[in-house]
Design brief:
6 helices, two-stranded parallel sheet, 5 strands, mainly alpha
Length: 190
């Protein structure tokens, strides 16, 4: 019942509260990002969402505009980034503009992370577990169980476990565990 009727309401209310609280800090981060290196403050990238439908994800730009847009996180090295860009990635603050995607209905706060369109191996593996049938999330079960350190099969399995067990308490647990991981800066590749 939660997944069908209340999860979307929870996402909208939490997104509105987050934007109210974070409006000024997000504006400052956008300004610093714009000043740090040439280019826009925000980065749009096509990702796959529920049902493998593409949508444009919004992030703070945490890479120079010269880096290819569809480069996987694993291929990015520190020398490519400025100190500010490394900090944005290390703290996961670059992900916060996705609150807009949540309000639009492209994403949820919790779900499998949206995948860039060329990561078809992960998308195909998620299909086996039903993980492509739910909205992607700002965070998810796979994120708090290893994030970038997980192989594709394990990540897809965790995403499938989430899809099969969506509940309010599971979402709240994932959100709190994510906050702890971000504060501790664990399982994050910069």
């Amino acid at each position: 019942m939660y997944a069908r009727y209340f999860k979307r309401l929870f996402d909208i209310l939490l997104a509105l509260m987050s934007l109210f609280v974070l409006f000024i800090p997000l504006s400052v981060i956008a300004l610093i990002t714009k000043i740090d290196t040439p280019g826009p403050a925000f980065f749009l990238q096509e990702r796959f969402g529920r049902g493998r439908r593409p949508f444009k994800i919004v992030k703070f730009r945490s890479m120079p505009v010269t880096i290819p847009k569809n480069l996987p996180t694993s291929a990015i090295t520190d020398p490519m980034l400025t100190r500010w860009e490394r900090w944005l990635r290390k703290t996961s603050i670059d992900e916060l503009p996705q609150i807009w995607n949540i309000l639009k209905g492209d994403m949820s706060f919790v779900g499998p992370r949206p995948v860039i369109t060329r990561e078809t191996d992960l998308i195909d593996e998620r299909e086996k577990y039903g993980a492509n049938d739910v909205l992607p999330g700002l965070t998810g079960w796979a994120q708090i169980n290893g994030r970038d350190e997980l192989d594709i099969v394990t990540k897809a399995r965790f995403d499938g476990e989430y899809a099969a067990n969506i509940s309010f308490s599971f979402d709240v647990f994932c959100l709190f565990k994510t906050a702890w991981k971000v504060i501790a800066q664990r399982d994050i590749k910069h």
